[in-house]
Every structure is written in C-alpha cells, then in structure tokens.
Amino acid sequence: MTSSGVRFISVCEMFSNKLFPVDANYPLIHTRQYQVQAFRMSDERFLLRGAIVDEKPAGLYIEDDPDPIWMHHMIVELQIVYPTFLIEKASVEFKNHPHLGCTNITDHYKKLEGMSIARGFNAKVRELFGSSRGCTHIGALLAAMAPVAIQTGWSMRVGTAMASDDSAQSAQDLQEQRVKQFASTINTCHIWDENGAMIAKVRAGEEIEMPLPVVRRLRDLGRDETDWLAGRS
User: Fold this and answer.
1) Number of structural domains the chain divides into
2) What's the rounded Cα separation, in Å, for the pair 90 and 41?
3) pLDDT for 73-83, tens place per residue?
4) Distance CA 145, CA 46 (A)
5) Any bridge partners for residue 90, and if so which?
6) pLDDT tens for residues 18-71?
7) Model pTM?
8) Residue partners of 45: CB distance under 8 A and separation at least 6
9) How far is CA 22 from the centre of its chain?
10) Which domain covers residue 10, as residue numbers?
11) What whole-number distance in Å separates Cα of residue 125 and Cα of residue 40?
12) Number of other residues whose CB lies within 10 A of the CB of residue 121
C-alpha cells in the first residue's frame, strides 16, 4: 500500500479473478484473456509471443459439464529487430477455433514480416487484415501486442546498458545511440510528446526520471536509488 492509498497487485493476482471485483448478483458468461511475453534473443532481437483466449464457463454451452470451454485460443509469435522494431519473422497458430475453415487464414499473416511494429502498425494491420481479410481475434491480439513491443524496447535498453562496456565509445556516440533507442517512444502518449519535457531531456543528454515502480521496489528492498542509476550511467 502506498502513502496515497493505492495498492499495487502482484503478477499472480494480475492473472486471477482477484483482478476484478466479485459481483455475485450476475452469472459469469464470458471471459477474454490476453497475455503477451517478450524474450531477449540477442542484443539486436527479441521474441514477442501473444495469446488470446475466449472462455465460456462450465455448464453454459453443455449442461452439467464441469469444465469451461475455450472457444478461441490463438498464439502469435513475432521475431523483432531492435531498435528498428521491424518484424523479421511472424507465425500464427490456431489451437482452439469454432470452425474448420478458421485456420485457412494463418499464412496470410506472413505479410507482417518486414513491417514495423512501432509507428503506424495498427493502421497497417487494419488495412491488411481487417474485415474479411483476416481473423478479428488475431487483429485484437496484434493491437494488444504492439504497445508491449515498445515496452520491451525499454527492457532491451536496460539489459544492453548493463552488459555493455561503453569505455571505448565517445560521448557523442553514446548520445546518438540513446536518441535512436528512444525514437520509437516519441508521440506514443502525452508524456512522450515530441515537444515535451521528457524528449527534451533525452535530446539534451540528461537523465530522465526513474520509473515509479522501480523507485518503490528499491525502497521496499532498502536499496539506494543512486546505486541503481550509477549502474546505468
């Protein structure tokens, strides 16, 4: 619990019913879940894996059935080049689907290869796979995966900074690399407005503020925030 009264939930709670308020007045009739994971393949690539599930509760479709039914379960895997965010490889798998012909569209998603998952991605997905040109559920999953790719860029940047030896690089080289790494974040939200304070700090070579969840976690661990920053300077 923070001083403002806000309670931060754990990862386990995020993917359980505790995420939602319990309302016993209404029967549950449908649950949709998205989950997206990112894996570092190298300093220049990461794997983005997304899953979508539509679940009907036990007994809704088949009387006295003790178990729920997954009407949809699809998985998308994207290999992404960093820091350009170009999709190098794409695959779609239908594990559960309502109709035999649902899987006829999977190869169509090879068209994702060569696209950027950063700026303009959702519009391009609608153009290529919208309406009868694709699967509405895969489209929704891709829309959920795109911002995760940008968030993964932060993780890639942190991991690269921890592992690299910058002693041989000039200050100018480091700054150019830093600006390039932040390029995909520009205009993604009001905080990262191209004319705003955060981007101005990046361009000036100044440190931006630490993420608040990192600050809170360091305090919980009794660790010094300056030590964390020093490891990334």
Assistant:
1) 2
2) 15
3) 999 999 999 99
4) 13
5) 78
6) 667 776 688 889 999 999 999 999 999 999 999 999 999 999 999 999 999 999
7) 0.73
8) 79, 80, 81, 82, 88
9) 27
10) 1-159
11) 24
12) 21
